[in-house]
Every structure is written in structure tokens, then in C-alpha cells.
Amino acid sequence: MRTPLPRSRPRALARLLAALTLAASGLGSAALGAAAPAAALGDGPTPNTGAAPHTNTAPHTSAAPAGSPALGNGLALTPPMGWNSWNTLGTGVTQEQVVQTIDFMAANGLVQAGYDTVTIDDGWSENHRDGQTTDLVKNSYGAMQLYDAGGNPVSGTDGTGIDPTSGHLIPHPGRFPSRTVNGQPVNGIQYLSWYAHSKGMKFGLYATDTYTTCQGHPGSLGHESTDAADFVAWGVDFVKYDDCPYGPPITGPDGHNYGTQGEGRELTRSIYARVRDFQRALDAASAAQGRPRVAVSVSAQPVHTGLPYLLAGDDPARTDPVVVAAGNPPYEAPGYAPTGVWCGQVANLCRIGGDRGPDLEGVLYSGQLRTALQYPGNVRPGSWNDMDMMFAGWQDPYGLWGTTDTCPCHKPMTPTESRSEMSVLAMAASPLISGADFRTPENSRHTQDGYTWSTGITPEQLAVYKNADVVAVDQDSLARPATLVGAPPANSTAPLVLKRPLANGDTAVLLVNQDPAAARTVSTTLADLGLTGPGYSAKELWTGSTGNVTGALTASVEPHGVAMYRLKPLPVTIPATVVGDGRYHGLGAGGTGGLALEVQGTCSAPDGSALDVNTWWWWHTSEKWTFTPNPDGTVRITNDCDTPTQRHGTLTGPNSPGGAAWALNGWDPNSPHQKWRVEQNTATGALTITNVATGLVLDSPQTAATSPVVLSRPNGAAAGQSWSLLN
């Protein structure tokens, strides 16, 4: 997330302790028609019980079984897609703005394109839980003030300290007012969940594994059961789980300066463990309430190393086989390794780098792409490397770019750069979660210094998100991310090439021009891509242009641009092996379930009868054909009939597409209508039978028995033009 906003000043301890005597108000744990469950993990009170506030007094000590498996919760089987409020709306996000976003996404094809999740980021809750009447007390470092058992403030840098807060998170009443749905009162977050679901969408919400969120609101550390039960009851489908430990710099007993690491339990439980605690609390709440499981997204790449000397001996990261196999560098505690090592063990997706801005460099090789390439093993159905929220189509909400705001840090991406950002993320199998303003120009209007402008996404930028070919690469079910072709780029402006294998055998290739100032020619070859076929059809996914590639793949790419291709092996054909073998064969029409080419009416049919497809009987001579080579290199195809009316009839083609093929007893060596080219696909064995006179192809366009066989224009996608040997 962005740099935290300024924190509130610490409040007096006496005021805090007075607030602790209040009971929880029981806000909003009941969902529409569902009661909240008892607590399962963490130290918060059971929702809506009216119990006295519980004070957290000891580190969490649940032990993980050795060799704990990957998460495998059946969620996020392809990279999640959707929208997040942070990049455009920040902590000022409101219920009205989210409703406007949901409406826009549903009305403008984004939901249909796969962007089905809308998530509210940090800032949605009050600055205290409902067990207090005043906001969180902070120390001089912006961290929550912790206390000893006697109520005295402590630094918590030795891993101890009591979190005095209790109760439930409270949606900000001014920005997320309560509503009535179906005659029932619901809080402002429940309402948005219901509204998203009513539009066929999912709803996501922000929380943290620390005492406070990045913007100083109550975090979920120590309150896992309470918050998870509330989230599930509110209908949350997706949780963005952040990590923001505040506190003083810490120098360990080994003399090493560990920097800011947090306080209290943040020092004794690894990020891995804290995420797992919340994920398991969500699962427990879902089971207790009979509701679907909730996907978890870790929003923080560890920027610190953890304190090995304070990490609890039973921390589950110590025994996780993936973490153990990765090892720990000096000064690094288990569970603080990059999330690309362990994410899929406890969460469905994890940030693999720091916060990105609207500059394209953040996703190029000098940015997060290099990190993504280091952790391909973390990418699989249910586990994804997250390269942060997209800036494609984002417009500067802090001012009118170029007029009231000229900070380079706020410069929006060009449409070219937006296409490049999406292409890189799709190749990496990264989640496609936008931070652009998905609202109408009217709803996204701003006024400043006498200027009025809209931050709403433009039609051109919206089309970037809706490119179905690029989305299909991102969502490919093989779930194998791209690899770098050739050596790493020599510098930050040198071009690079990525390749990604796809589930149907195709290969996605991305040619990237990292130079922001000049066009570059970017090139690769089939050999460099590891493709051994003699040729491939190529579709450029942004322009739609097509062609064939037999050696080099080259494009002139504009500054900060890409060329993205989907390569499909061209059918490899040879003269059919059945030609000249002297045998009679049944020919099955593709797409018919094995129906055979026959003389309509069998061998008792008259001379010149049309052909159809029918059930294959190996003893029916009307369904058996031989392929005799002609001196000119063409083929004569005749049936096995030997009756007064059908005497080894010759396959003959009509003059125009759609005309019936028929069998003639007479053979005219000078008639091209009785001559054929028969080619065989070496990969599938299928035959293509082409008439010499017209170039039309033998086709069974209908799939039912007794359907006519005709000649049609060649179409590689037409199943009926593909014939297989039945004997």
C-alpha cells in the first residue's frame, strides 16, 4: 500500500483504561438470516454474545503439524480478477462510490469479461473497536500502545505486551451507513456485500495481521476469530490481508540492527503464521455458518527479516516443508522469506514485491517481473504471485495531470503502456485487479483550482481490460507462468522476450520494448522458443493480425510497448499412407462419433448415387474405400461394391460448394472431378480429401446418421472435413 497517512497522537492511558470497562456492543455479526458462530481462533469474544471485553495476555501457541500441506481450499483456481478501491479512492472510499463502481462494472462488460470481485481497501472501519469509546492509543512510533498486566505502557520490543482492545470492527458510519435489506437492518459493509452479490459479483474487504492497519485502523492480530466470523457473516468472499508492523528500530542481542519489526506478538509469530491463523479462522467461521470459504490475498511482501531469537518455538513456519527447504539467510526468521516461497501454503495469492505506482517500470524486468520469474513454483491453481494492482486506465485523482499536478509519480500510463502492463501480468499468471476508476464521467468528476476533470476510465483504456484473448492467457488452466527467453536484458531499456505454454498446446509469446523513448525491433526464433515444429500460425492479440511463423518472429515495437502473440502449431501433413496400400478402409467423419462414409442405399444403389455417413459395419462393402495412385500424382478413390448397379464406384466431386459427392461406375482419367489429393496429419492421423478440379474438401457438415456428404471450402476448424481410418 501507499505510505501510511499521518497517525493520530497517543491518548492518555487513563482514558484508554476507562474505555476498557465498556462491554462490546455486538455490532453487525449477524448476517441476513444467519447467526454468527462461536470463536474458533484468536482471542476476541464470541460475536454478539454481550460478553465482557477479553484482554489479550499471551502469545498464540497453537502448533502446526510437521509437514503441513499446501492450502488447497478449492478457491482461486485461476488468477482472481476485479477491482480494488485504493489507487483511486484511498481511505476516503465511500459506500456510494463502491455502488457506482459495481454498477459500472456490471453495465460495461467487465463482469462478463471476468472482473467479478470488488474489494474495499484500508480505511473502511472506525479507529476503534466496539469495546472502546475512544480511538486506538498510539505510541510515538505510531504503533498501538501495549501494556503489562498492571496496566503500565510497555514497548513490546521483547515480544511481550497486552493489546487492550476488544470487540468488533465498526464500519465507518458516515462513509458506510447502515441500510435495510429485505426488511432487515444491515451495516454498511453487509449492504455492499449484498449489493455486489445481487449483480453477480463477489465482495472483498481489507484487514491486517498486525495490531493496526497500514493507515492506523484496528488490525486483526489477536482478533482473528471475531473478525473472521464477522467477515463471513457479512458475506465477504475475498480478504486482502496486509502486514504493517509499526514500532521502534530493534537491535538484537547479537548486535544486528533489525530495523522496524513491530512489537509484541508481531515479533513472536511469523507473517506465515499470522496469515495462517486468519485463514483457518475464516475456514472455521465458514463451516460454522454454513457459508462458502473465503479466499485470502496476502498484500505484503516482507520488507523486513523477522527476529529469529524471538520467534516462538512452535511457529508453524519452522516445520513447513516448503519453508524448511528454502532455508533461512542470516538474521532471517522462518516465515519471513519472500512470499513467492511459501504463499500457496497459507493463502491463495501473495504480493511478491513492494507497492507499484503508475509507471510501467514497476512491472518490467527492473521491477516486479524479475521477482515473478524467480518463483514459478508458487504458481498453480489456488496459488498466484501477485504483481500488485493494475494502473491501466488510472487517472490522477490528486489533481489534473499536467495542470494542477505535475509530479512524475502521478503520471498516468498511456494506452500503449496499459496494454504492456496487462500483457506482462497475463504472461506471469498474475491476478488482474484494477485500481482504475471504474465509474462514469459524472460520478468521477473532480474540481480543483478552477479546473474540473474526470478520473473515470476512458473507452480506449476500458477496451484494454476487456481484451478476451489476453485475459484467456492470464486465466489459462495449465497455470504455468512465463519464462524468460534468452539472457536477462543487459539494462533497463533493453528488449526482452517471454514465453508461456498454454493448456491446449499453444504458446504465448511477448516481445517487450522496455525503452520509454524509442521504438525497437524485438525478435526471437522458433528455436529460441524451444518450438520444434516446422511452422506455427500466429495471432497478435492486441491488433488481431494473423500470419504464419516458420523461423523468426519479429516486430517493430513502439516505446514501452509490446507485441503479444499466440502461436498454434500448423498441421503437419504428408501424402496419406493409405495411398497405394491395396487395401479397403472405412472412413469415419470427424464430429459424428464414428459414422462411416458410404454409398447412400448401400451397394444396391444405382450408379451415380450420392454419398452419406452411416453406422460403421466392417462387412458393408459400400462403406469401404481404396486409394489408388494415378500417374500424375493424384489419387483415385473407389468403393468395394461389386453388384450389377455399383461396380467399384469412383468418388466424384461436384462443381460448387455444398454439392453432393457421388459414386460413378465409370472412371475418366482426364476428369479432375474424379481425382483427389489425400493428405494425412502426422500428429492426429486424420485425412483431408481435396478435389483436384475445385479445391473443395470432402465434408460431412451434419452429424446425424444418413446425413449427406458434400464438398465445402477448406476450413481447418470444421470437424466434418477430418476423416479417420476405421480399419
TrEMBL record:
Statement: the UniProt record of this protein carries the keyword Signal: yes
Protein's UniProt name: Alpha-galactosidase
Catalytic activity of the protein: Hydrolysis of terminal, non-reducing alpha-D-galactose residues in alpha-D-galactosides, including galactose oligosaccharides, galactomannans and galactolipids
Keyword Zinc-finger annotated: no
Pfam families registered for this protein in UniProt: Melibiase_2, Melibiase_C
Signal peptide: 1-30
SMART domains attached to this UniProt entry: RICIN (SM00458)
Highest taxon listed in the record's lineage: Bacteria
Organism from which the protein derives: Kitasatospora aburaviensis
EC supergroup of this enzyme: hydrolase
